[in-house]
Automatic annotation (TrEMBL):
This is Uncharacterized protein. It comes from the Bacteria. It comes from Chthonomonas calidirosea (strain DSM 23976 / ICMP 18418 / T49).
């Protein structure tokens, strides 16, 4: 019977998927979402919205 040789196709898809998964926050594992926030003292602070939504930061 005919053999299926389409494993390379799935390899490419898996590779693309793993590449997309590199774009995740290393703290919460979600899609990184950073917002700039001004502290009361006037300093700009980066705030991880993704982590806040994941419940990692208060
Ligand atoms: Zn995060």
């Amino acid at each position: 019977m005919a053999k299926k040789k389409d494993t390379s196709k799935t390899n490419v898809a898996a590779r693309l998927e793993s590449k997309a998964q590199q774009q995740v926050c290393r703290f919460c594992g979600r899609k990184p979402e950073m917002v700039r926030q001004l502290t009361p003292s006037g300093k700009v602070q980066m705030f991880r919205k993704c982590c806040a939504e994941a419940g990692l930061v208060a």
